[in-house]
Write a structure and sequence with these properties.
Strands 1-2-3 form a 3-stranded antiparallel beta sheet. It is built from 15 helices and 3 strands. The model is unreliable at 1-10 and 234-248 (pLDDT under 50). By secondary structure, it is mainly alpha-helical. The chain is globular and about 80 Å long. Helix content is 65%, strand content 4%.
């Protein structure tokens, strides 16, 4: 039997013991081919119904998935079985390092494995969203970014799926779950469709707490679809989707740029002050120039300016010769480092 084959997969009654036995062998580094086969088979059997359930309710992914669900489920768990140079499985070891797996029961081992598989499946589904529906992927990223500075909602997981819920109060888990259309209908009583994401999250929190008909734990994807629907009547309208993207990006660019600049200042500041003998006040000016340059560049408002021009506005009388001799190398290097990091953050989850 080849590694990853589901031939001979255990029955549901014995899957706990098979999963636990294989996991224990992997975690102590004594796994054989049979253990790996068993573990891949169990992970795949967990991923298939989860992926099928997610795709059933998400037509965008279902229409664009160019493989059957079984193959996609294998893709979802493949990263868990990437070998390290030592022959270990780093993703599995890293996850279970947070738990005392030596004393876990078979049931607990399977429970944690299920969570790991669902989390891995969600990462692949999110990657698929970015590929087939970039505007929705961008909304999801912006929601995650906004939550870093938002305390009335929390990002949590249920069965491995990212969800939003009020920070305090009963999740009302026994009630039925929101669908995108139902959530959109409820939010339209609170929103006009011109608000930014932080404001929308605030109203979402208020709406979830005020109602009792539905569960207050809502999948992140459902929230993103509902938010986009509030902005536009036709989710596949490309022109409107572009407006939504621009509106959302403008809300958070300053947050990303500010965070990157602070990290860069802490990382490079002491080095530049000591080795290049740049005064702290001049270094502060450099970073203000870089911030303004990045903000103008990403806003696309047609008012972009070069680094020398922006620096001249802060250092009166700065000549071209002085800029080239005393400022250009350091400022352009810092600007390139910062710009690369901002671009990376904007592309991430």
């Amino acid at each position: 039997m080849q590694i990853g084959s589901t031939e001979g997969l255990p029955s549901p009654k014995s899957i706990k013991s098979v999963a636990a036995t294989a996991l224990r062998a992997v975690l102590v580094g004594r796994q054989g081919v049979a253990d790996i086969n068993d573990l891949v088979g169990v992970c795949h059997s967990l991923a298939v119904p989860y992926v099928r359930r997610r795709l059933t309710g998400e037509s965008i992914l279902r229409r664009t998935l160019n493989m059957d669900i079984s193959d996609f489920a294998y893709d979802c768990v493949a990263d868990l079985f990437a070998f390290a140079e030592t022959g270990d499985f780093p993703h599995i070891h890293a996850y279970f390092a947070a738990y005392k797996h030596e004393t876990m029961s078979d049931e607990e081992m399977l429970m944690h494995l299920r969570r790991l598989v669902f989390s891995q499946a969600n990462q692949n589904l999110f990657r698929l969203y970015n590929e087939v529906d970039p505007s929705l992927g961008k909304i999801i990223r912006n929601i995650k970014l906004a939550l870093q500075q938002f305390d009335s909602l929390v990002l949590t997981e249920r069965f491995g799926e990212p969800c939003l819920a009020p920070a305090a109060g009963d999740y009302n888990l026994t009630a039925r779950a929101f669908g995108p259309e139902e959530l959109e209908h409820g939010l339209r009583r609170y929103l006009r469709g011109t608000e930014n994401i932080p404001f929308m999250l605030g109203k979402l929190s208020l709406f979830l707490v005020d109602q009792n008909e539905f569960s207050r734990l809502v999948p992140l994807v459902v929230v993103a679809v509902a938010f986009r629907a509030v902005y536009m009547r036709h989710p596949e309208d490309e022109e409107t989707a572009k407006i939504v993207e621009d509106k959302l990006d403008a809300s958070y660019l300053s947050v990303i740029v500010g965070d990157v600049l602070q990290n860069m200042r802490e990382k490079k500041g002491p080095l530049y002050s000591k080795k290049k003998r740049i005064r702290p006040d001049l270094l502060d000016i450099y970073f203000k120039v870089i911030e303004e340059r990045l903000t103008r560049s990403y806003s696309g408002d047609g008012n972009e300016k070069g680094l020398r021009e922006l620096l001249s506005e802060k250092l009166a009388g700065l000549t071209e010769k002085e800029y080239r001799a005393s400022h250009r190398n350091q400022l352009e290097y810092l600007s390139r480092l910062t710009g690369d990091e901002v671009a990376k953050r904007l592309k991430e989850r």
